## 1
Amino acid sequence: MKSLYLATQNAHKVEELSALLGSHFRIHSISELPISEEIPETGLTLAENSMQKARYIAERFGVTCLADDSGLEVRALGGAPGVFSARYAGEPKNDQANCSKLIKELQGVTDRQARFVTVLTFHEGGTFVQFEGEVLGTITQMARGDQGFGYDPLFEPLGENRTFAEMTMAEKNKIAHRGRALEKFKQFVDETLLFHDE
């Protein structure tokens, strides 16, 4: 089974990705690598950031790597916070502050349509492949639930009456943006036999 390093320092993302990919790869966190600095994220799009993170880890340490960049796009805010989702309320990253800012920005706004988007970048031996997943939904008036992370307490997927934060990880992974991108990635892995023993 191949080793796969996840280019994220977010423990919640590692947990989600491990649950979805554990049968295909031997999953490793980059905390196992000699890295102390933040991975650069200077792209103007989710795809650029995802590519930048994958290249940084894969080329620096010579490992097979999967990076993701995800963002929440709110229609009434012109697609914001988008690529700035993790730092919407400024530095340092703070989920609660980001959610509070979003609630304030949408105060009195009736159009609360939004979408979560994930772009995955897989790096294997110098080759990059990207996969995208999305889920449509609405932003709730107030936070609900204590599961998940990020904007999960404010995002109610289309056809659901619960936010992501009111779902178990398994329930969320079945319909969420990251899970949908990973399904495309797993199909690619199966078709190219990348998960066969090293």
## 2
Amino acid sequence: MVKLNLILVAVLVAGALFVVSARHQARKLFMALQTEQARARALDVEWGQLQLEISTWLMHNRVEEVARDRLKMAVPDPKRIYVLHAQGTQP
């Protein structure tokens, strides 16, 4: 009978250690999940910013393309560019 009690106590202790270990692992995995979800949100924000930047650059390129092709405009020669300054300001 004592032998059976010792075996049952050993099984109970092993089961309790397994439960503690499983809960600890679950907490670690949950923390990792939260970290990765926060990272995913940050990447979503960055993706949106990059999409906005791309659309801005495409708009600039589109304006340049229309000016060049439809309006036959070109960048002037640097010798023909004059910079005017407001009265009372220094360059």
## 3
Amino acid sequence: MKNCNSCGNAIGDSKFCSHCGASQECSSCGTEITSPSKFCSKCGASIGQTVNTQATTITPSTSPKKSFDFKKIPWFVWAIAAAVILLLIFNPFKGPNTPKEVVTEFMEAFEDLDEKRIKKLIHPDERDIVDFSGVPKDVKVKIIEFEEVTIEGDEAYVVVIAEMSSKKLGLSEEDDFEFELEKVKGKWLIVDGL
């Protein structure tokens, strides 16, 4: 009974060790290898030990993919998401960006006697003339229609028909109001019509 030249286990007449897989013959000349060595004593070829080359099959995981469970999302995450969506849709910080929107905002701010809002809508050179001292606190402004909106480059002309009323003054009349606007740093501002 012959022993493996590499691990020393009994292998019988096999050409390869069933324990470690080492070749028992020179792969180049076929000479029997009797002792552990790196080279064949007859031809000088390198003696490599064969390695078990059994194919390993990798099977993909058969566990089902877990679907995302929306019910596990906390309520406050839904609230934040809803607030962001509403902010993107209605964006209260955007402000008016067309001559028509600026005039509408101006008329609403005038009705509220909101000097701060009005000053944001008019040209900086005109802001010091804003004065509500003679305006009754119950004044109401209702826009009937925009008669004309003309935009030429960075200048615009807007004519709006509106009804102004005040119970305190016994006033209720419809009139047309003319506004001239100028685009300053990408923003429309009223320069005349105050």
